[in-house]
Amino acid sequence: MLDLRPYAYLIPLLPLSGFLLELFFGKYTWRRGGIIANILIFISMLISFGIFYNLYFEGLPYTEYSWQWFYPGIVLGVVVDPLSIAMCCMVSFVSLLIHIYALGYMDEDPSKALYFAETALFTGGMLGLVLSNNLIQLFIFWELVGLCSYLLIGFWYYKP
To answer: CA-CA distance, 38 to 19, in Å (whole number)?
Structure first.
């Protein structure tokens, strides 16, 4: 099977891009939101399970991929080890189930594109938290998950 470990950076990046796409274009898609985030989280789940297969069944070693973010030496990266990939599989699978259920549950809500954008951001933050390879990146994604929790708890801020 194809070695998918070099594509591990796409696991959190796809839901994060789903946040931006749902935020700006979610109202104009079929069913008025949710489809873009569902597709990108599904692709993220497929990559997670592909890397899981690479690590557990093909016996490929775990690795770490790093990229220089800014000039003074801030590094971003992902750690591809059995525990982080198992968590990515679980997080992306549960998130996809939540998104599929929410397609029907949020069908009549006028701001469901915003809901799907927030849940995609939450998923991307959680996956980035699991795959982070340094404390700065861990802190950034931890704060992102906290912000998304706040936004999702207060999503229905009005009383009908």
So the answer is: 11
The pTM for the full model equals: 0.91
Ranking 36-40, 53-57, 65-69 by mean pLDDT, the lowest is 65-69
Q: Do residues 99 and 37 lie in contact, with contact meaning Cβ atoms separated by under 8 Å?
A: yes
Assigned fold of 5-154: Methane Monooxygenase Hydroxylase; Chain G, domain 1 (1.20.58)
Q: Where would I find the beta strands (DSSP E) of 16-160?
A: 63-68, 75-80
Nearest to 113 by CA among 24, 42, 44: 24
Q: Which residue has the tokens 């933050």?
A: 125
Domain borders along the chain are 5-154
Rounded-to-integer distance, Cα 13 and Cα 8, Å: 9
- Using CA atoms, how far apart are residues 112 and 104, in angstroms rounded to an integer? 11
